[in-house]
Design a protein that fits this description.
Blueprint: H1 7-20, E1 27-33, H2 37-46, H3 48-51, E2 59-65, H4 70-84, E3 92-97, H5 108-111, H6 134-151, E4 156-160, E5 166-167, E6 184-192, H7 195-200, E7 203-206, E8 213-217, H8 222-228, E9 238-242, E10 247-249, H9 250-260, H10 273-278, H11 281-290, H12 292-300, H13 304-319, E11 325-329, E12 335-336, H14 342-350, H15 357-365, E13 379-381, E14 392-393, E15 396-398, E16 401-409, E17 412-414, E18 417-424, E19 427-429, E20 432-438, E21 443-445, E22 448-454, E23 458-464, E24 474-480, H16 488-492, H17 502-509, H18 516-527
Helix pairs in contact: 1-6, 4-9, 9-13, 11-12
Length: 530
């Protein structure tokens, strides 16, 4: 894959150069769960030279959302709080919202001390760099977006809702938009509209010349969507699907604070805010008639539409012109990392083995050199010891030692110490094991111990029995990745062979009497030796 062939690669190279030249964001806001502020700030500040500016000059502000407030009210609270900490509204800052329980990633969330966005991804700035977590990778990818927005005159915060890195498949630097008077931005990618996508996504309609958002609409049938956007009903009909978080100008944030700042409870940005901003009242009423979710919101907040229109009026009065919300297309082939579910997280590691452009780009993200492939078809990266007798084939081995009897086919082994291992199209990340057996699709994450077997499509991780007392030893948590661990029955009840439910283990690992770093250091010293 070459720069010319894939604009994602060109953007990745530009991103790495941006960080090396210390031209990334100067300020970053992280909204966290209560109790996680110092931990998140320390982790992000610790990789600031890798993901923001090589000179380390980026300042990370953390705000703890001790009571969940939703995207809109939460970020308004955070904006007010970080300004008291010294945040200065200038240029384009990055923001990330990390609250949540990460139930669908159980048991990995529990192993991550209750902070799901800390799951490592095989993404790094260069070969000598550390692996980035979902949160840091997400911010890393958005640094280039923030840079281009600022170069086009935007002034505000480019928000990320969570831990999904995204790299455009279009050249944002070539857009040539004037964003100096833009109130907010939405991001999308133009794709062919299918029935399934129409019913499960949000959609953006923009003016082709000005890139101004004309309408944002929510899930509906394909025929309804085509009608609403006045598109011809052809098999190749396309529209911009909404891909996530917004960028909000400082003016927008100030006026939103005046409008919603005293509001109690919960309110999301992506809970009909942009729909209300772009629908006149008759169209809004029509939406309410067809959308049960909107009717539920209006039952809870009957004045929601009026408050949003008040915000619009405030902005237009202050600006002396019409509200300006622009839409930027990331291109249908954008890279979009996803660790929201167990199988997705595992597949993100396995993707580095794939042939074709997606696998090649995944290896570029991991800074894995293609030239290191050995005669058995393995990519062996860093300080490794791997059997050369043909027992390890077509696999990716990074900074790992594999000794004893091995039978490994098409698997990914990272930062592990293994004495005797069998693996078929499986993943072992930071494992220390004697006799590890991974059936097809298995995922062992920080597994420690002897004679560990992970069944097909299952996930296993090893945790302290009591994180405040490692003398009590370690225990495994196991789950079938084909089942959702976030359902009430799966999450709240203990399922054999697990001793505790995910909910109980989550609460236990959320303790902060002993810091996560101290616990990890103790596990490494006591257990991660062969």
């Amino acid at each position: 894959m070459t720069r010319k062939d894939d604009l994602r690669l060109a953007n990745l190279e530009a991103l790495r150069e941006l960080i090396s030249a210390s031209q990334g964001p100067r300020q970053v806001i992280a909204i966290t769960n209560g109790g996680d502020g110092p931990i998140v700030a320390e982790r992000l500040q610790g990789v600031a030279q890798e993901i923001f500016r090589a000179d380390g000059s980026t300042h990370v502000f953390a705000h703890e959302e001790r009571t969940r407030r939703g995207q809109l009210l939460g970020l308004l609270d955070a904006q007010q709080a970080v300004q008291a900490q010294g945040f200065k509204p200038e240029g384009v800052a990055l923001g990330i919202m990390l609250p949540g329980k990460g139930t669908r990633l159980s048991p990995l969330t529990q192993r991550l001390h209750g902070i799901k966005p800390f799951l490592p991804m095989l993404i790094r700035r260069q070969a000598a760099s550390p692996w980035l977590s979902g949160a840091s990778a997400s911010l890393f990818s958005w640094a280039l977006v923030a840079h281009h927005l600022e170069s086009m005159g935007f002034s505000g915060v480019a928000w990320k809702w969570g831990d999904e890195p995204q790299i455009p498949a279009l050249d944002l630097g070539a857009l040539g938009l004037d964003l100096s008077h833009t109130d907010a931005l939405r991001f999308g990618c133009e794709i062919t509209i299918t029935e399934d996508l129409a019913r499960n996504k949000e959609w953006l309609l923009r003016d082709a010349e000005s890139a101004e958002l004309k309408l944002q609409v929510r899930r509906r049938s394909r025929s309804e969507l085509l009608s609403r956007f006045e598109l011809a009903d052809t098999p190749k009909a396309k529209a911009l699907v909404h891909i996530g978080s917004p960028a909000l100008s400082y003016v927008f944030l100030e006026e939103a604070q005046r409008t919603f700042g005293e509001m109690k409870g919960w309110l999301d940005v992506d809970g009909y805010l942009f729909e209300a901003l772009t629908h006149e009242e008759d169209a809004w009423q029509a939406e309410a008639a067809r959308d049960p979710g909107l009717r539920k919101l209006l039952d809870e907040r009957p004045d929601f539409y009026e408050k949003v229109r008040e915000l619009k009026a405030r902005l237009e009065q202050r600006r002396g012109r019409a509200l300006s919300i622009k839409v930027i297309d990331f291109g249908a082939g954008l890279y979009w990392g996803d660790i929201g579910q167990l199988a997705k997280a595992r597949d993100g590691y396995l993707q580095l083995l794939d042939v074709g452009p997606e696998g090649s780009f995944a290896r570029q993200l991991a800074a894995v050199a293609e030239s290191t492939r050995d005669p058995q078809g393995n990519l062996v990266i860093g300080e490794c010891r791997v059997p050369m007798d043909g027992s390890v084939r077509d696999s990716l081995i990074i900074e790992s030692v594999i000794e004893g009897t091995a039978q490994i086919e098409g698997s990914v082994i990272v930062d592990s110490r293994l004495q005797g291992v069998q693996a078929t199209r499986a993943v072992a990340f930071e494992c220390t094991c004697h006799d590890l057996a991974l059936d097809q699709g298995a995922f062992a994450f920080r597994a420690v111990g002897d004679a560990i077997k992970v069944a097909a499509e299952h996930v296993l991780t090893t945790l302290p029995v009591d994180p405040t007392d490692l003398e009590q030893g370690l225990e495994h948590l196991i789950w079938d990745s084909r089942k959702d661990p976030g359902t009430p029955e799966a999450y709240e009840e203990a399922h054999a062979p697990n001793r505790l439910s995910f909910a109980e283990k989550f609460a236990q690992m959320r303790q902060r009497e002993v810091t996560p770093d101290a616990i990890e250091a103790a596990i490494d010293a006591r257990y991660r030796t062969l």
